[in-house]
Amino acid sequence: MYKIGHFVGGARIEGMSGRHSDIFNPATGEVQGKVALASADELNAAVENAKAAQPDWAATNPQKRARVMMKFVDLLHRDMDKLAEALSREHGKTLPDAKGDVIRGLEVAEFCIGAPHLLKGEFSEGAGPGIDIHSVRQPLGVVAGITPFNFPAMIPMWKFCPAIAAGNAFILKPSERDPSVPMMLAELMMEAGLPAGILNVVNGDKGAVDGILDHPDVHAVGFVGSTPIAEYVYTRACANGKRAQCFGGAKNHMLILPDADMDQAVDALVGAGYGAAGERCMAVSVAVPVGEETADRLMEKLTPRVENLKIAPYTAGDDADFGPLVTKEAHARVKGYVDKGVEEGAKLVVDGRDFSMQGYEDGYFIGGCLFDNVTKDMTIYKEEIFGPVLSVVRAKTYDEALDLAMTHEYGNGVAIYTRDGDAARDFASRINVGMVGINVPIPVPLAYYTFGGWKRSGFGDLNQHGPDAFRFYTKTKTITSRWPSGIKDGADFVIPTMG
Ligand code: NAD
């Protein structure tokens, strides 16, 4: 049994609130640790600390700040196995997938090594007689990130790497379900040369989040989690005059046109639908074959693949497809959705509800589930399940399939499988979803592009990572200067124009 407190002022500290949350091992159902839940005073102390440290860090030249990111990348590689093991132990995902979680964060740290370039301003010489204009990007001060359980390495890094490389101090409020890795990341940043107080981890629940949202010295909030909380955080942060980018839930569709390579499409659906037990915001949860014949061919190939998914604890080796769900509540919720789907008339072709893992009967395992004949009005179509459950909605035409994805309330990711370039082009141009895959099932953009959903999958503007992250965590100052030569003319009472 281990205890996790907070990371403030460059070191781990104990939680003093007297409140804590259990950390479960999802494979066994056992409580393996306890994480402290911060009080308002503890959060305020972390912000104070960050505020005091930030000006010196902002004054450190960007190349030196970038060197911390360089070293951090090396340390992530050095500790990859340790990080992945800690991650799998609390989250439940397989070890190769846990490494992917770390690497997708590491890639953003690599991108942030380019901070000196990304922070360069603009300059216009001779914008008027003797007048130059230039703009600079300055850090905001203390900023925060509130992150979900499903990527406990990647998403914290998406938030703190650009913010810190841009010269801010950061308060990270990670998920209370899997808090070990965020604490390890903070230690690695210190080892990489980050001054104390620039990266702080405050563990907690709603209390800590509200403390961040209401704190006058926190100037920006980046959030990732479920849509109701994303909307809440966005509304409250904005009402308090902060910048906010809040990313929420998803229901990602994959269209399969009659000319698609069906083997490729089935591989894609199995990986993107069931990988990480479906606990990914970019998981494909709805497959939309176009035409009855396409749907029949798809079901014929897909069904045995779902029946034969390998489910195991992360300790069982690298060839498992996915592990348990994160909590008992998540398990009950996913099972409840499958029950509801049956009740509402969808055809449950593969039923994983009674899956039990020998030797791990108290773990939160559920088998892959596959529904056919799902319709638009069903709960399992409308809501995010966040489990290994794939719904097949049969569409008669391409336009009907497109309309399904267009009219769904979520707009995180979407994919189309086809050999027809014209259809793919039309789809990419018309679809109202933030990230589009063409014969690619999980179109997560690389670190030097930006990541963000549309509709109710994202609130606020400016996306995560890529150049947008540097815009989000800096403010622009524009300086107009004149160095006149000769004799002063005195005051000018007419507004100056550049004509
Ligand atoms: P969650 O909304 O329960 O929690 C996210 C964060 O909010 C956590 O830090 C949590 O402590 C905090 N929180 C929870 N309840 C709160 C409340 N009432 N008030 C204030 N703060 C609260 O989400 P989760 O279960 O950790 O993560 C899964 C969700 O995240 C899914 O909906 C998934 O789609 C989404 N997600 C989205 C993206 C994206 O980029 N769009 C990426 C990953 C996950």
Automatic annotation (TrEMBL):
<keyword id="KW-0520">NAD</keyword>
<dbReference type="InterPro" id="IPR016162">
    <property type="entry name" value="Ald_DH_N"/>
</dbReference>
<dbReference type="InterPro" id="IPR016161">
    <property type="entry name" value="Ald_DH/histidinol_DH"/>
</dbReference>
<dbReference type="GO" id="GO:0006210">
    <property type="term" value="P:thymine catabolic process"/>
</dbReference>
<dbReference type="InterPro" id="IPR010061">
    <property type="entry name" value="MeMal-semiAld_DH"/>
</dbReference>
<dbReference type="GO" id="GO:0004491">
    <property type="term" value="F:methylmalonate-semialdehyde dehydrogenase (acylating, NAD) activity"/>
</dbReference>
<dbReference type="InterPro" id="IPR015590">
    <property type="entry name" value="Aldehyde_DH_dom"/>
</dbReference>
<keyword id="KW-0560">Oxidoreductase</keyword>
<dbReference type="InterPro" id="IPR016163">
    <property type="entry name" value="Ald_DH_C"/>
</dbReference>
<protein>
    <recommendedName>
        <fullName>methylmalonate-semialdehyde dehydrogenase (CoA acylating)</fullName>
        <ecNumber>1.2.1.27</ecNumber>
    </recommendedName>
</protein>
<dbReference type="InterPro" id="IPR016160">
    <property type="entry name" value="Ald_DH_CS_CYS"/>
</dbReference>
<feature type="domain" description="Aldehyde dehydrogenase">
    <location>
        <begin position="19"/>
        <end position="479"/>
    </location>
</feature>
<dbReference type="Pfam" id="PF00171">
    <property type="entry name" value="Aldedh"/>
</dbReference>
<dbReference type="GO" id="GO:0006574">
    <property type="term" value="P:L-valine catabolic process"/>
</dbReference>
